[in-house]
Amino acid sequence: MLKSELKLPKYYEDPSVLHTGCEDNRSYYLPFAPGEAVKSSRVNSLNGDWDFRYYNNPFELEDFTQAGYEYKNYDSIPVPSCIQMHGYDRHQYTNVNFPFPYDPPFVPQENPTSVYHRCFEIEQISGETKYYLNFEGVDSCFYVYINGNLAGYSQVSHSTSEFDITSYLKMGENDLTVVVLKWCDGSYLEDQDKFRMTGIFRDVYLITRPVNHIRDYFVKTLLTDNYTKAEINVDFEFSGEAVPVTGTLTDASGKVVAAETVKGSKLVIKLEDPSLWSAESPYLYTLTINTPEEVIYQKVGIRSIEVVDDIILINGVKVKFKGVNRHDSDPVTGYTISKEQAIKDLRLMKEANINAIRTSHYPNAPWFNELCSVYGFYVVGESDLEAHGATSYYGASWSDTYGDLVQREIFAAGILDRNQRNVIRDKNNASVVMWSMGNEAGYSKALEDTGRWIREYDPTRLVHYEGSIHQTGGHINDTSMLDVYSTMYASVPGIEEYLKSNPKPYMLCEFVHAMGNGPGDMEDYFECIYAHDRFVGGFVWEWCDHAIYRGITKDGRKIFHYGGDSGEYPHDGNFCVDGMVSPDRIPHPALAEYKNVIRPVRGVLLNKEDATIELENKLDFTNLKDYLKVEAELLVNGVTKEVYQLGALDVPPHGKITLKLPVDKSLFGKESVTVKLNYLQTIELPLTAIGHKLGFDQLFLQESTLPLSKTTGETASKENKVQVEENGTKIVVNGANFSYRFNKLYGSFESMVVNNHTVLEKPLEYNIWRAPADNDRNIRNSWERARYDRAFPRVYETRVSQENGVTAIYCKLAITAIQIQHILDLQVTWYISAEGTVTVEINGKRNKELPFLPRFGLRFFLPKEYDKVNYLGYGPGESYIDKRRSSWFGRFEQEISDMHIDYIKPQENGSHYGCEELTIVSSYGQNLHITAHTPFSFQAGRYTQEELAEKAHNYELETADSTILCVDYKMSGVGSNSCGPALAEKYQLVEEEISFKATLYFE
Predict the structure, then answer these.
(1) DSSP β-ladder status, 356-359 and 321-326
(2) 614 an active-site residue?
(3) Of 23, 510, 593, 947, which residue is the catalytic one?
(4) Is the pLDDT confidence value at 274 over 90?
(5) Any catalytic annotation for residue 370?
(6) Alpha helices of 617-716 — where are they, by DSSP H?
(7) CA–CA dist 331, 334 (Å, integer)
(8) Which of 181, 823, 844, 874 could form a disulfide with 879 if both were Cys (CB 3.0 to 4.6 A apart)?
């Protein structure tokens, strides 16, 4: 006998039914009983373990509405949570492509369906009390049943849905059953770049309220008289009859500064010389809203945001957004984020000088913006809208079908609804300075109408939508309701071109794609941002890597999975692993790079002779003396010799100061002399402490005037005679304490033995390849077509000679590959002194018909006993020609095992730019020293570039039995071309003529 099945109303495929039984939208707040201030007795959390059953589709549901139905044999699942994190359904990461057929508004019939159940107690029911059931986030749609009765339906995953369930309740125990579907018609508007999860993933609670109460209110602040006077206007809306309301405003110390009675439905409070809110000084008042039966506490930040002469001003001041895009994401809890997890994010952001957040691409948890108001972040509050899958069905394209979904009339109501739910919920947060209508959905009349509604409803903030720059489907775009012109990943030259001729303020809502080893062009963008008042700043894509935690390996390495690791289709691989911190919030080098690019002070050297410098305050509201102190560290040849305390300097916001450093010139020799200006926090803040390092500048008072390279000995003493033997393929050079064997077929040494120790475990290689970084994903195709990954030397001529005790081996060769023309033509001379010092001089010509090179240099396979480096160059973190602002020029010592950067997807990492001296230290006491006539890059590690290129995950990597050392004439930059513009030519190894001279010796 077939079981009785529950037939759901097909609201989930009907765009005309977005919500049933739902209350109108309101701002986020929790009511308290009179006299309560910390914990509200009116709010009853329903979080916890719920009964749970999973179905493959909604047609298999047992009819739990039947009398006497028992929830037998159900599993248990925590609420809030995502079901995929508890073993149900499957993990799937996709970016653009919809994970179901493009058939709007229909979704697959095999639609993962979850039934949640729990009981709760009602002690009394009366005509004087209302009960409201609140869900802060359910993906993607859900049906609510109270005691077997359908009480409502709602969608829009990342927004609050509130139901008046009073009429469905009974005294004593009540049944709450919720049916959640993974897909609904709204899923066409929720095509965000993320893992696709489902479930009741945010808090659920029951609110008890009097019949007549404040339903909603809107706090607006108005500044006048040059921002010295403030008017706080609060508009109230009531449920039922109006109730008496008084408003008491207290300052941050708890002192009452105003108390007023609501007249009609409006509260007006006027202040003289108010303390203003900004991200740098997030001053908050507390507005206590009292009614006879309830109290509501609302934090109020007094601030304005406006556009004047096409420049964005906050409180009348030009500002810069030094921002980041943030998802609610965790490798263990998925979309479910606690306040503690969010505060960890915010602390890391504050430590890195970040001042702005775009809630990509949906409203974050409803309390998140409150935290941003408290701790000081500007927020671009984005609606739960993304539909770029319209560009991927057969025959579709970004230029033609980008707006297909949003231009369909069936979705017009949903587009407006999603924006209203975002704006109305978060409108009372000072942190929110701009509304974003969504992300990557094309443009349409529905979005234009929505933008007009936002401007009319909330004229106190700006309106943003990047998709408006794309005109598709025959729609003629009207952007008059948008306050900013916004793009993603535009090149710096492209931005400069826009700023020449277009009037609106400009903002990069996404830029410098922080995927893997990168981004490498942050400084270029901020030079442009600081140069133009109309360029308000940008938001790095993105804050954290998205991945699923899968335990640890036997040797203790964490296992993180990305797209494709769960056997899903479609997927977008590791494109979700694109953040400045790891999934478990370990900062990547990208975060340190960004931190120093957006440091609060910038120093420049005005005069080398008398060490005159200029410091510019890059803060918008804070005098430097109130926030930080400056110390000047004098380094000679990379070693600190003196530290000068410059102290707290009186520099107003956007101001400059010129001063002379008290440098001791007697410390100068012929080595490099630099001053490192360190900026140290002097005040205690909620998320950062006194002494916190805010950033640095390094100024070169003197470049090194010493020859960087050790010269090869000119004569051989009687005790150090050198013998040379040659045959058709080898040249052997023997000295008193060394024996070098040179391979004439490859143009390099295949063996080096010094003091009876083997130095080379494999032949020395000419090296043009690197394990492609994520940001090489586009140029990689060209590199591989040019066979750079399969290149080898072809020697045409080899000569050996001896003069004045120096053995010279001359080679004429090419770097080439199968079925490809010459990549490089080289003339290489190896000079070997009687003491065993080797100098190589390389002069080459690059084939300009081929793409720029990843790198050019030499690769050594040294015994693994070479386990430590000492170098003079940019460190201590990895550094590249375009990614070195978090590094400084100094002398560093590091264990080779610590130099690998463990990106989840293995790739090029750990190079060091601008090196002048390098020593590889062995555990048996023999050291290899390398210098060059010009600064070089080097990389030392335990993984070959082949291993890094082959393995898909870091936990799969196997160490080599050697220490791999790459010494590079030049390493191309890393850029951000995984999503951003191509690597700028100035960072490419693109030169036709190559000249490199390096010396290595042992001691």
Answers:
(1) parallel
(2) no
(3) 510
(4) yes
(5) no
(6) none
(7) 6
(8) 874
